[in-house]
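Quarterly update from the structural biology core.
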Amino acid sequence: MKFLADGMLGKLTRWLRILGFDVKYSNILEDNELSAIAEEERRILLTKDLELYQRATAKGVKAFYVTGETGEARLSELAKQFGISLVIDMKKSLCPRCNTKLQFTHKEKLAGKVEENTYAHYSDFWRCPRCGQIYWQGSHWNNIYSTLKTVTEKIKRVRET
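Predicted structure, tokenized:
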């Protein structure tokens, strides 16, 4: 499953990439360009623009109209609609910035490339071979896991009612 997100869904794009989904994103393409790319590359067009959604689906482009106002609500919508597992597997994660598969990188190769404190306290690192961004599961991951847990629980409550 591949997606194409419009310019209003940057945060959702990053979530989906972390979860391992190929998501193209643009905040500069025109609506007709988005539809054409989605159709040509067989991507699901994600949009908060109702008119774009209606025009795309009228042309036979697979699209999803995102209505949620918060990041959690949007992620929940997609997880329910497409059966997305809200579990991060770093072996599948893509770079939130550029959509490239992350590579596990031995700590020793990163000496001098991350802050000393980070280097001293963490042992697992991933690097994007395209943009060079380095990732590790630091304290911010508590927030990431908390958000995913909240969304998962919300979905379960909805299914139980």
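The first strand starts at residue 2 and ends at 5.
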